[in-house]
Known about the structure:
The chain is α/β, with parallel strands linked by helices.
Amino acid sequence: MYTVLVAENEPWVLKGIVQMVKAAGEEFEVVGACSNGDEAWSMIHEVWPMLLITDIMMPGLDGLSLVKRLSEQRTSLVSIII
């Protein structure tokens, strides 16, 4: 089972990504969906996903800064930036 966290500030895009991940198969489970990088940062430390799908531009902490922070903390998860 691959656990996935999605961070996207556009509600309709967030909903679409979550639906696509769910449709990808039973081996993927969406464990969280959030609307900005700050929320994603907090949620990562709660649910410890294996995969992060994040928007590049979000209010507050953007996707690039989020991935950089994760790298600096040596958090082991795969990131996909859209």
